[in-house]
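Journal club prep — side note

Before the paper discussion, L.F. wants everyone to see what a predicted structure for a comparable chain looks like in token form. Sequence:
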Amino acid sequence: MLGKRINVMMTKSKHGRLKSHQQCLKGLGLSRIRQIVNVADTPENRGMINKIAYMLKVEEV
């Protein structure tokens, strides 16, 4: 079994954001607004999601 997964959707633009926040988006595989990616529910991914929660929509699968 693969473990838990979560869908993450980018809801706001990365332009004008802190460089570290842009890097979190890149690390999650997000590059466009309304793009949805399915990532593993790991502490590393959760940390990136928590850091930029104001520009994401998260849904547990």
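L.F.'s comment for the group: The mean pLDDT is 95. Keep this in mind when we get to the figures.
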